[in-house]
């Protein structure tokens, strides 16, 4: 364990030998790229604050001229007159997103550990199948998923959205690749000290791959947060009491262009939560994507 800590400390202490002008040039370039990537978010905020007459100006304005909160007021007024309250849609969304994300992270990690560190027969074949499954679009697997959920008797329940999220192959791929970077000597030392596989997994492996499963939480939560308005949510959930917030917001479009303002406000609300989660965990995401392993 001390060797691992020493390796990580030495990696953090490495400095790139660059001149000050080059550093300023790199900083300016990254600032421009960051500002460009933030343009869509600024535009969505501006659109959500526009009055209805300003939304349909031509040519369109990028920055709102007369900001107003009427769109948000109209949005909550629409749900106030609905027989299913907004709080119910909000609960459904958080419930599905939380359980689906937690189950996916735990199962993906537990499945990745033996593929990465145990000499089980056929593990390379299994991992090859996992990699191949990443190539299939969700539209290709929608019918098999529906038949599986129907066979299990989970239609029109929360589990119809939660259960398929457990088997997403992206999490298994990410966790397996990250766990392979853990030195085998560290796990062997733990076994010599008397630790079993369960203790090694929960007390040694999982803390080390913390950046990986935090990144997986973001990916999984983002996918489940927007579930409900597509074919999957519409096919699996029939009861209005069980539908998610994304589905409820999509129904606003049925009111025509007069509801463009509330729809812009709804889109901003739906986007805010995943962005907030990413902001709080972005350092771990960057570490996951940029790490080159602990073996070197």
UniProtKB/TrEMBL annotation:
ABC transmembrane type-1 domain span: 90-281
Keywords attached to this entry: Cell membrane, Membrane, Transmembrane, Transmembrane helix, Transport
Family according to the record: Belongs to the binding-protein-dependent transport system permease family.
Source organism (scientific name): Paenibacillus spongiae
Membrane-topology descriptor: Multi-pass membrane protein
Annotated TM spans: 21-49, 89-113, 125-146, 158-179, 200-221, 263-286
Name assigned to this protein: Carbohydrate ABC transporter permease
Cellular localization per UniProt: Cell membrane
Main location (coarse class): membrane
The keyword Transmembrane is annotated on this UniProt entry: yes
Superkingdom of source: Bacteria
